[in-house]
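Ticket #4471: complex job returned nothing on first submit. Input attached below:
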Amino acid sequence: MNWLESISVGLLGLGTVGSGVVKIIEDHQDKLIHLIGCPVKVKKILVQNTNKKRDVHVEPSQLTTNVHEVIEDPDIDVIIEVMGGIEQTREYLLEALNRKKHVVTANKDLMAVYGTELLKKATDNGCDLFYEASVAGGIPILRTLVDGLASDRITKMMGIVNGTTNFILTKMSKYGTPYEEVLKEAQRLGYAEADPTSDVEGLDAARKMAILARLGFSMEVDLEDVEVKGITDITQEDIDYSKRLGYTMKLIGIAHRSGDKIEVSVQPALLPDHHPLASVQDEYNAVYVYGEAVGETMFYGPGAGSLPTATAVVSDLVGVLKNMRLGVNGRSAVAPQYQKQLKAPEEIFAQYFLRIHVEDQVGAFSKITSLFSDRGVSFEKILQLPLKNKDLAEIVIVTHKASKKDFEEILMELRDLQVVKEVKSTYRVEGNGLL
Amino acid sequence: MNWLESISVGLLGLGTVGSGVVKIIEDHQDKLIHLIGCPVKVKKILVQNTNKKRDVHVEPSQLTTNVHEVIEDPDIDVIIEVMGGIEQTREYLLEALNRKKHVVTANKDLMAVYGTELLKKATDNGCDLFYEASVAGGIPILRTLVDGLASDRITKMMGIVNGTTNFILTKMSKYGTPYEEVLKEAQRLGYAEADPTSDVEGLDAARKMAILARLGFSMEVDLEDVEVKGITDITQEDIDYSKRLGYTMKLIGIAHRSGDKIEVSVQPALLPDHHPLASVQDEYNAVYVYGEAVGETMFYGPGAGSLPTATAVVSDLVGVLKNMRLGVNGRSAVAPQYQKQLKAPEEIFAQYFLRIHVEDQVGAFSKITSLFSDRGVSFEKILQLPLKNKDLAEIVIVTHKASKKDFEEILMELRDLQVVKEVKSTYRVEGNGLL
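Support reply: We reran it on our side without changes. The output follows.
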């Protein structure tokens, strides 16, 4: 590798993010030369179709449909993976790392599932493996956890880490637009995929939370450890009640450490309107981080998109190249400090929102409330309203902190009560008080 | 230096931040050992009075009133400077760097004035000089500019980088409390100094903006290049009109690049209520960064305080120690890429808020508005209201974009108009549209 000439990188994938990477490397060549000391060129790009018309300028000679031409090219020092996918992509990257190529990836699915294996392979081969773009696109949150808050003990992270669902909930909340209609708008604007399952069911957010929890708590966290609930059951009634009670409904990833144990989940939750995350609108992302010493911080920005994500990728590339210049690649990954310990349901505490329909008869209310008081769960807020044209009343409750175990048992008992017609909805309520 | 034993650091100063540093190093010893591979101890601390009672536990043998015992101690590898002050402190740190000690400082005054000299001295001696804590305490913003957004071209930064003034403006705005009263409350709570001049006149914010502009634009920026106006002239009327027009009044540091030229300033400005900075309340800080590729990002957190600031200091210390482990100290500072080029007044564009008292007579309004239209400055909003018990009217104008030169000339002409009784106030209006 001759620093006076140039650095060659190989690109796997030339979709929206890949095109952004090509564009940024081209546009910011002067800055890259200033930072790194030599030009950076994209030598080979793996694509599915070499004849497709592209938004960015690439020479036909750069394109190939044969992955080996990229990961086996001896001139190429760094592989940038922006093709997506899991199993096949894992094999390519393991192969690249075995050939001592550094890797930058934007692939959250891959890192959530095979992150540990890939990072170990990178360290074993003296290679860097950076993946800032995999969580919250344009927000440099992984670096912040690893370097910026290196000296602190992070106890809670809450993230709006999926732009699609935040866009949908913002529109439902602001304009009362029904879910199906906003989803279509999101698809039209390119904020949602044709098959939106991974977004709206919370799986995409869960992958990002697994990655965040791993780094923030320095603990091995698997995707299966993340409890997930999506936004498809949220009704306009729930959103309206939230507002009325001073809350904003968001799809929130929560990673919480108490003592040595952690919990990680993704679910729609109610945040007080004054909480910093509550004002994160539309397709924007934000990660709220609470550290014992630093207190409350929040990092806000675009969570997706061609150029924001590509910025994170190229910033990682700059990190790899600076390390190459210093001769210290493959030494920044730190193995987890702690053994995985997950909280049991009786150790997970939250406030809860609950909306139920009950028969409008004498004593119904006290039957319900006694279920809560029997378990020592008290109320922060209660609304009771008659329902039109029915012998039913609607009761909305916000509890004080209760264990997940207690709350779920209360729910089961409520469903068994004759006066309870239906439990319409339940949500966690977060962000009241610091933790 | 023996990695199996421990790293010794020397501390200059044991005030609120210094005490926080001692506490964090003590509390997080396990994490530090995990990250660095050996314990970290504070060997010597420079204090003014060795007998003073302290909030943190320190051995009498750690304390000294003689700076040479700290910066000349051959066991000490890193000097942490949290004593404040400029001239004397500069001398100590130059001496420490000459002796090949790495330096971590929280001193914005020093870095704003002598940053370039000190960084050069550090590089010449193969030493690290880190100063994350000097801007926005607990928010790792400098790292974000240098690493996280390394591949982007930053064109605008707006910062709420002074907690005292944000606290005061939040209270004035929320509760209508008069300036003097809120200032006293801030002093009582420890958010403002006994002599609040540096905060309320915008000087503290100016120092931080000089540091941010230097890093964000990769250009030498001196403190004298920052135009400064403080908050002492803000009246409740101005705040009320802001609200009425959908704006929030904040003390904002603005660093803006257009082409190759920059402007840096600190002043009270009006932000649209929906702007991410507008919801930053009380003593919190936030830095909004616009990059050409990444778009809008914002970094939020505590701007001061013992533990948040100490977190930033110790995270910098971890950075120094990781570099020691890798043998790459003194190689992360990057010289500015660009020559300083400041915008002339005719190249600085902003919207302006203007409140004037005029004689309530026929034709007054058109005389005033024609001054604007003569220079091609149009209006976004105008309010005209009669004033009680006077033959005067109050006119409030928000202009569309105008150059600073045009606006200042219009102001002079307004003051010369006979119908204009008084120009009560003018403010920049920021954050409408992306740039």
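The mean pLDDT of chain B is 94. Closing as resolved unless it happens again.
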